[in-house]
Design a protein that fits this description.
Length: 368
Amino acid sequence: MKNKLLPIIVLLLLIATNISSLFAQNNELRSDIIVAADGSGNYSKVQDAFNAVKDNNLKPTIIFVKAGIYKEKLILNAQKKNVSLIGESYKNTILTFDDYAKIAGGTDKSCSTLIEADDFFAENITFENTIDSRLDKYNEGGQGVALMITGDRGIFHNCKITGFQDSFFLKSNKRTYIKDCIIDGTTDFIFGSGIALFENCFIRNRKDSHITAAKQTVEKSKYGFVFKDCVILKYPGENVTNATLGRPWGAGANVVFLHSYIGSQIKADGWSVWTKEPAKNGFDNWQTTYFGEYNCFGPGFKPTSRLSWTHQLSETEALEYTKEKIFAANTTTDVKLESDWNPILKNDSCHSILPTKNVVENTIEATF
């Protein structure tokens, strides 16, 4: 099986590379602002391009970022609405920084990129934090967020969000759509109060810890983090054998995996409590948490061994997890959302970064 899959993967990657090159050329031509590290664009820094966007702009502003490594601590503030940030490829268009919680003043201040604005769209971009909390100098406060979202109706397509501890912070109870992306990290590396749909994504554990730490409020949100048609693997080269799908940071934590491949690094229990120490905050969170799975597969999918308080959804229950329902205005009472939302991607069927869903572990590692 491994030998048969490799030629198919290589062919798909070559096709994707050629198509991505054509899209890069088209995106540059139709952009409003060009960022180029070599000085050939309107700006050489991404933050300068963000600052140039008009406040409360109703017309979309397209920022094209040429290939390069941009080491900047970025903020797109709440007034800079309707921004599209398009890169050449997530493999060569990298937004990176190396802040971490202890020196930044907290996890939420450690982010490499912060998106406060509504209606943000990113495509073909890597969002990165290079801090590795295993190193001695980071042993206290080594959380380093690569990307933090507080705006509503954000879309990330063909992107990579990569860090170590606490990579992707969906801080606010707002809506985000993540499609065809790669997300790497460890210890609650997808976390927060957000309402998020992850479709057709690769999620990769970097060590034995937890993928999600959801913090939705009890009885306030119908949905939290929804993973649909995703692939859950260990990070290439790492020794991961005892990871979990998540633990409840908040008492209303809500996480569901649907039709997803669960790799062998996920332990039989599948999930975890927040803490096993009764004196600590969050000890009882599991009692009001909703963790569920439906029609998953792979060596790490062991439904009969899951923790007793988690759920295996029925077909009827699973049908409630549509994009339209997840992103409806009435999906939460924690905040007031403006209107229903059904995000549509123009290039959805044109250039996916995912080579195949017929996954054989260790076979696809070289494709990233």
